[in-house]
Amino acid sequence: MRILPLAAAVAATLAVAACATTTSPTGRTQYVGAVSQEQLNQLGAQAFAEQKAQMKQTGNATQKRYVDCVVRAVVAQLPAAQRQIAWESAVFVDDNPNAFALPGGKVGVYTGIFSVARNQDQLAAVIAHEIGHVIANHHDERITRQMGAQAGLGVVGALVGSRYGEGATQTTNQLGGAALQTAFLLPGSRVQESEADVVGQRLMAQAGFDPRQAVNLWQNMIAASSGNRAPQWLSTHPDPAARIGELQTRATGLVPTWEAARSAGRRPACG
Q1: Which pLDDT value is given to residue 4?
Q2: What pLDDT score does 188 carry?
Q3: What is the pLDDT of residue 166?
Q4: Residue (of 155, 249, 242, 266) closest to 211 by Cα position
Q5: What's the half-sphere exposure (Cβ side, CA atoms, 13 Å) at 173?
Q6: According to the model, what pLDDT value does residue 50 have?
Q7: Which free-text remark accompanies the cofactor (predicted)?
Q8: What is the DSSP string of 244-257?
Q9: I want to staple 206 with a disulfide (CB 3.0 to 4.6 A). Which of 17, 63, 77, 141 is the partner?
Q10: How far does Cα 237 stand from its chain's mean position?
Q11: Residue 149: strand, helix, or coil
Q12: What was the pLDDT predicted at 70?
């Protein structure tokens, strides 16, 4: 499917769609509904397909099984509607320690993440965080917010955003396959990132991954930064020191959840 017709269809939908309010997993009010869930899933699937077409995927079967195992364990703890989606994961060859999840059940991991996520629990912290964005409706919220301030071709601009990892603004005249892809791969706001931390750390504990390892992951992320240039996944997120403190506090409260999951037989053995 070509991007321009799809973007036009989304624009047409916006003209008649009534946005709604909902409550996020942390209790804040969200404005959503500029596009339907079906369209979000379609956009996510298209962005994922374009990512796979443009980036080399690993030929390492062990890495692919490892990531898929963690994804399946986390997804098993999602609400029923999300569990019913045919989740798909891919591992892309890129040294950037990064990952993403998209509406429609798509998860991408860059091989660089293995340099900072040094065990399955730390990888689960990354993947659960990214899946947290999806189940917290962050993509819907972001598009709705942008679309609410725009009209006509501005709708297309809302889907374009800036090119992931480069920060170069795309214009509607440059709309193409990569544009939709990068719109869905843009980092969220710091509020959304903090919220995904909360959701993700809870999910990983429920799945049987040690929530305390989220702290170790972020310590590794900080150590991986070079000079003033932090890894992309780190630089777009809230203040690392404050984040680690919040993760530590939540981890203490989530240890009983993790222990209960293990007692119930949820003991992931992914790698």
Answers
A1: 39
A2: 57
A3: 30
A4: 249
A5: 0
A6: 87
A7: Binds 1 zinc ion per subunit.
A8: HHHHHHHHHHHHHH
A9: 77
A10: 12
A11: coil
A12: 98
Rounded to the nearest 10°, the torsion over CA 222, 227, 228, 234 is: -20
Please return the burial class of 109, using the count of CB atoms within 10 Å of its CB with bins 0-12, 13-18 and 19+. buried
Residues in Cβ contact with 49 at an 8 Å cutoff, skipping those fewer than 6 apart: none
The count of other CB atoms within 10 Å of the CB of residue 123 is: 27
Tell me the C-alpha to C-alpha distance, in Å, between residue 255 and each of 122, 209, 258, 262: 15, 10, 5, 11
pTM, entire model: 0.79
Q: Kindly list the domain boundaries of the chain, sorted by start residue.
A: 3-263
Cα–Cα distance measured from residue 45 to residue 88, given in angstroms and rounded to the nearest whole number: 10
Mapped onto helix, strand or coil, the DSSP state of residue 118 is: coil
Catalytic residue among 38, 88, 130, 141: 130
Q: What DSSP line would sit under 28-89, residue for residue?
A: -EEEE-SS-HHHHHHHHHHHHHHHHHHSPBP--HHHHHHHHHHHHHHHTTS-HHHHTS--EE
User: Any catalytic annotation for residue 195?
Assistant: no
Mean pLDDT for each 10-residue chunk of the chain (271 residues)? 43 51 87 85 88 95 98 97 94 94 95 97 97 91 68 37 28 34 54 91 98 95 66 56 89 98 98 83
